[in-house]
Amino acid sequence: MPIIKGIRVTEEEIIAYLVDGRTISVPLAWSWRLSEATPEQRSNFEIIGDGYSLHWSDIDEDISAEGMLYGIPARRSKHGHPYSSVIGAIV
After folding, report:
1. How far apart are CA 40 and CA 51, in angstroms?
2. What backbone phi and psi angles, to 5 degrees, belong to 2?
3. Concatenated DSSP letters for 4-24?
């Protein structure tokens, strides 16, 4: 399982740096919440779950390293469920 040690969010990508030296990147558009967030909101994140996931409290977004690795984009909820935008499963 990939473990995140750091990230960078640009205008185009979400880039995760893993403890084993690998880098994973996905298009920013895969997270509609991050796409619509301000640069300040994008930079306000925390690494959670011992490095397995990322959380942006300002926009209530969670992204797992595994979801990034396997390319599982966030979906907009039809019903507005607060956890529908999670990329990948957070166990």
Report:
1. 22
2. -70, 145
3. EEEEEE-SSEEEEEETTS-EE
pLDDT digits (tens, 9 = 90+) for 23-79: 999 999 999 999 999 999 999 999 999 999 999 999 999 999 999 999 887 777 655
> From residue 11, how far is each of 5, 51, 91 by CA, in Å?
21, 23, 29
Q: Are 40 and 33 in contact (CB under 8 A)?
A: no
Cα-based distances in Å from 13 to 50, 68, 80: 23, 11, 25
Q: Return d(Cα 77, Cα 91) in angstroms, integer.
A: 20
- Domain ranges, ordered by start, for the chain: 4-70
Residue 82 pLDDT > 70, yes or no?
no
- CATH dotted code for 4-70: 3.30.2020.40
